[in-house]
Amino acid sequence: MSSLxxxxxxxxxxxxxxxxxxxxxxxxQTQLPAEVVHLRLRxxxxxxxxxxxxxxxxxxxxxxxxxxxxxxxxxxxxxxxGEGLTCAAAYAHFLKVAELMRGTRPTAVxxxxxxxxxxxxxxxxxxxxxxxxxxxxxxxxxAQAIVDEDAQACLRxxxxxxxxxxxxxxxxxxxxxxxxxxMGWGTALAPLYIAHRxxxxxxxxxxxxxxxxxxxxxxxxxxxxxxxxxxxxxxNMAAYFMAQGNIKAVFVGADRVxxxxxxxxxxGTYGLAVLARAHQIPFYVAVPxxxxxxxxxxxAHIPIEQRNPAEVTTIRGVSIAPAGVQVAxxxxxxxxxxLITALITERGIAYPPFADSLRQICADD
Length: 365
Ligand code: MRU
Hints:
Blueprint: H1 3-6, E1 13-18, E2 21-27, E3 38-41, H2 44-52, H3 59-81, H4 87-102, H5 109-127, H6 132-162, E4 170-173, H7 189-197, E5 203-207, H8 214-225, E6 230-233, H9 238-243, E7 249-252, E8 256-258, E9 263-266, H10 269-278, E10 283-286, E11 292-293, H11 310-313, E12 314-315, E13 318-319, E14 332-335, E15 342-345, E16 348-350, H12 354-361
Parallel strand pairs: 4-5, 4-7, 5-6, 7-10, 8-11, 10-15
Antiparallel strand pairs: 1-2, 2-3, 8-9, 9-14, 12-13, 15-16
The structure holds 5-S-methyl-1-O-phosphono-5-thio-D-ribulose.
EC number: 5.3.1.23
InterPro entries: IF-2B-related, IF-M1Pi, IF_2B-like_C, Initiation_fac_2B_a/b/d, M1Pi_N, NagB/RpiA_transferase-like
Protein name: Methylthioribose-1-phosphate isomerase
């Protein structure tokens, strides 16, 4: 199965170092599916803006992007200041950029997890007063390790999750949790890709995912790239298809899972979980370890991002609501643990009671 890693055709973010210096490269997700546009970002501010504006999005992908953004910031400083740069000044700049990255989006814990991991590495090297060029090199290696480990985690979630799928299953998914959202095959989409490659005839119902349409624009696009059969539906059609007996399971990802197994994910996920329970359909959440936040007791403590009302009042720049109308735009909701059948992680499948199974999953840290 490991050759599958090399067969991945879509990449959300990667690092390049060319004649002009280092760059964080992104597939601009705001342009999909109309155009495949690759961005080469050369300043940390551009990286932060790209995360905020959803050019790159999805919990593991924004963590990896922030890690690359920190490397970019120090590589740029080193290029500008050369011999004059001290380790202490480089570390001080690192801390400033870490704050910039932390301020981009509040809900996905992977962002904070990746920045924390980079900061631990930078702090250790700063204490040793290493040469700034060595600091940059080691930070790049750490960021690449975050990327590689996420790709491996996706593959493992895919293999474990595929075992839950039978030939001919129709499943429903929400938002985008695939190659565009991670450094590998995805979280909730990975089992579907792997099952498809194993020859199981899987059919995916894709929620369009208002207001930003990650399902319609991104999931439908990347499943099509891989030849996975799909049907795109609007968010309010899910109950109809469940009632018809068409849906065998729901697969979603998450931006943060708390110690008791509550799950924050794209707005609309909670509603799907309620519907799945009403129709006795299994509700699976696929998450890498980096999405599990044992420091929070329950979902009530998860900060929920409130986004620009224009995302609700316009579609692709066209107004669909009266000017000045009052709007709410929470980007995520919290699904309580009792609605979740299982959490698929790279370390195994966690079943209720999640307080116990998650503690076990995280025991190896
Ligand atoms: O606002 P987004 O597009 O970053 O939201 C993404 C999601 O909600 C995904 O379902 C989530 O990150 C988990 S899967 C990678």
